[in-house]
Amino acid sequence: MGSFHLRYGLDAPRLLALQWGAGAVLLGLLFTVDMPWLWLRACIAAAAAVTLLAGAWMLLYSGWIKLRHRKAVLEAAEVRSGQRVLDVGAGRGLLAIAAAQKGAKVTAIAQRSQEAEADKERQALLRNCELERTPSVRVMDGDAQRLPFADKSFEAVVSHAFVHRLPTADDRELAVLEMWRVLRPGGVLVLSDCRQTKPYEQIVSTLTEDMIVQRYRYALPFSSMLIARKK
Q1: Residue among 187, 102, 101, 200 nearest 144 (CA)
Q2: In sequence order, what are the beta bridge partners of 157?
Q3: Is pLDDT of 221 > 60?
Q4: What are the entry keywords (predicted)?
Q5: How many CB atoms lie within 10 A of CB 18?
């Protein structure tokens, strides 16, 4: 079992705080309020257990499970040494760093934004590259909807938990089409998202018949990974 760390960020910290806060409140009610009905105490105890366990699971996912999941993403993308790989919406470098450790020539797009949080993520990505002594990862600012690369530039294009964060359906469609544009024939596109990938499936299905969708149950909400090969 690999080491637990939050180097790649705590997923949904507000939801985690809400879950643990609600669990603490329910436990407080259970031990401080006199309740004459056993069934009510049982219901409150069950609700407290569920919320606290959900929070604990989210912490485990952020610090360990997603480190295992990136292996599945890169295997699906068939990332190998010497390949040119693009990670779109790279965040703190979860996929980009692991791909570079395989010997791939990795470009990581940090979505251009005026928000301070985006700059923090970019700095965290660079810091993680140093901490993991990663072979050079090319980090660029850019817009996923207008990728600054020529057609057919990469053997693999990957993205994790990013596309759904774009503000509109048109933006998300443009991002998927751009990823496809810069992918070489024979290359693989992998979109892993913490929400359903149905809209992406509809877009990619018009571009290739060589597409599958895998569901993975260790992420909540239950998530999907779209894998498509460009002919």
Answers
A1: 200
A2: 86, 189
A3: no
A4: Membrane, Methyltransferase, Transferase, Transmembrane, Transmembrane helix
A5: 14
Distance CA 159, CA 33 (A): 48
pLDDT digits (tens, 9 = 90+) for 152-187: 999 999 999 999 889 899 999 999 999 999 999 999
The count of C-alpha atoms lying within 13 angstroms of the C-alpha of 42, restricted to the half-sphere facing its C-beta, is 3
Residue whose C-alpha is closest to residue 200's, from 231, 217, 225, 183: 225
| Nearest-angstrom CA–CA distance, 204 and 226 | 9
Q: What is the pLDDT of residues 15-37, one digit of tens each?
A: 899 999 999 999 999 989 888 88
Q: Can you state the angle between helices 94-101 and 66-76, rounded to 10 degrees?
A: 60
Strand segments, DSSP code E, in the chain are 84-88, 105-111, 137-142, 154-160, 183-193, 211-216, 223-229
